[in-house]
Amino acid sequence: MALRAVRSLAILSNPLRTYSTSGPLVNVSINEKTGIATATLQRPPVNSLNLELLTELCTTLEQLEKNKSRGLILTSSSNTVFSAGLDIYEMYKPNMDRYKQFWTTLQQTWINLYGSSYPTVAVVNGHAPAGGCLLALSCEYRIMLNNFTIGLNETKLGMIAPTWFAASMRNAIGTRQTELALITGNLFTTDEALKIGLVDEVVQSKNEALEKAGKFFDKFKRIPPHARTMTKTSLRGADIQALVKSRNEEMNKLTAFINDPKLQEAIGMYLESLKQKQNK
Ligand SMILES: CCCCC/C=C\C/C=C\C/C=C/C(=O)SCCNC(=O)CCNC(=O)[C@H](O)C(C)(C)COP(=O)(O)OP(=O)(O)OC[C@H]1O[C@@H](n2cnc3c(N)ncnc32)[C@H](O)[C@@H]1OP(=O)(O)O
């Protein structure tokens, strides 16, 4: 808390610096006038989150923090998919060293995004199942385009959404709705998501979403950044601390879980069903 306070106080005195962290999987551009960064996920066809994409995103978030970013818009280069969630191939017959690196990077990406000192908006311009929904939930505000689906559907895949996935959803829609959403593994339509507060606004186009995102950032023009950041930390800090404390324990449990032959069989069948879908 104290460190964050010092960091946010520094925002008041330091001028904004420009920098570039664009990589092949995450394009980063900075609006010179507003200082707002846009990170666009660009791993076709569905922005599934593999180790390389997560590493780029994690580094981008670290750089934005270091450079006292004014804000971040997280979006997708696809017109139909925000992110298909974790890359299932990272969990199918995994090389355990890579798997551990993958999961550690996912944890760190969440810590950086959920706990960022700068304001964050997800422009959800396509489907956002599971890990895709987690990325959106980790932002402070979600603007979604119509006719897509979003949710933590892990139970439908025979998996359990980790506690910090659940905490991110609880932070947005409360305990009751989170329990219902998680046990059913529901994927919500955009309108259903709006109704329960899983997204904050529904729009018809990406341009409209970007305009609304600008309005969200404008709200902070007259709010001292340190007050904003400390308030966010007071609300989200406990969730982050809970993961920080249990990171290793979670890794041990996941290692055992992922090596279960029944789970591997289920993942294999799920991958097959996704492929079959394409052949129809
Ligand atoms: C302490 C104990 C804790 C226990 C915790 C245990 C485990 C960890 C827990 C879980 C966390 C898991 C989180 C996840 O994110 S799992 C991933 C879940 N994601 C999904 O279920 C989405 C699957 N995809 C879709 O539904 C669709 O693809 C889409 C996103 C709606 C897009 O549809 P569209 O029609 O546009 O595309 P296609 O379906 O034709 O797909 C194109 C192409 O992409 C491949 N693909 C899709 N999704 C993924 C993915 N997530 N990973 C890898 N690959 C994916 C698909 O197979 C097609 O490939 P092809 O080779 O056929 O072109």
From TrEMBL:
Signal peptide: none annotated. This is Enoyl-CoA delta isomerase 1, mitochondrial. Homotrimer. InterPro entries: ClpP/crotonase-like_dom_sf (IPR029045), Enoyl-CoA_hydra/iso (IPR001753). One of its GO terms (biological process) is fatty acid beta-oxidation. It comes from Zophobas morio. It is found in: Mitochondrion matrix. It catalyses: (3Z)-decenoyl-CoA = (2E)-decenoyl-CoA; (2E)-tetradecenoyl-CoA = (3Z)-tetradecenoyl-CoA; (3Z)-dodecenoyl-CoA = (2E)-dodecenoyl-CoA; (3Z)-octenoyl-CoA = (2E)-octenoyl-CoA.
